[in-house]
Design goal:
It is a single chain. The chain has three helices and ten strands. Strand 9 and strand 10 form a beta hairpin. The two termini are about 30 Å apart. By secondary structure, it is mostly beta strands. The strands form two sheets. The protein has a five-stranded mixed sheet with strand order 8-1-2-10-9. A five-stranded mixed sheet has the order 3-6-7-5-4. About 10% of the residues lie in helices and about 45% in strands. The chain has one domain: Beta Barrel (OB fold (Dihydrolipoamide Acetyltransferase, E2P)), CATH 2.40.50.180. The longest helix is centred in the last third of the chain and has 6 residues.
């Protein structure tokens, strides 16, 4: 039997919706994005994991809000700074991701897809599928399903 090795994440390409988080640029596949909203009122959830910032009311639908800074092991968002909400749809369910700022939709070529940088460690490394080098900027491709715990 051949030895088992960790399979590399498949290359992704096409359009990525990009956003800023603690000074770094991240991207998720546009197909997962339902909408982007300004900061929303959160209802805290007692005894929820630290990454669950709370619940938001999205036109009558209760949606879990995941704090990506927490999931990626980044420092807390500075006081008085509002998060931007990216609502993603996975397996027919809406989940919101809290990020610092929304950026552009960019086209990426699967041929430019690279393994996650060695500088990533811990929880962040597990959530990043890979990276793309853009003009003077590294775009980290987020694994949405892992980020929301699906």
């Amino acid at each position: 039997m051949p030895p088992t090795t960790e399979a590399a994440a498949p290359a992704i390409g096409g359009q990525l919706a990009t956003f800023w988080l603690d000074g770094d640029l991240y991207g998720i596949e546009v197909a997962h994005v339902q909408e982007v909203l300004k900061s929303q009122g959160l209802t805290r959830v007692p005894l929820a994991p630290a990454a669950v910032a709370g619940l938001i009311n999205l036109r009558g639908q209760v949606v879990t809000a995941i704090e990506l800074r927490e999931r990626l092991g980044r420092p807390r968002r500075p006081e008085g700074t509002d998060a931007v909400v990216i609502v993603v749809r996975l397996h027919g369910e809406a989940v919101s991701l809290l990020v610092d700022a929304i950026a552009d939709v960019v086209d990426v070529d699967p041929a430019d897809f690279e393994a996650p940088p060695d500088t990533l460690d811990g929880s962040a490394r597990e959530l990043i599928r890979g990276a793309f080098k853009l003009d003077g900027q590294l775009l980290l491709a987020l694994d949405v399903q892992k980020a929301v715990g699906a």
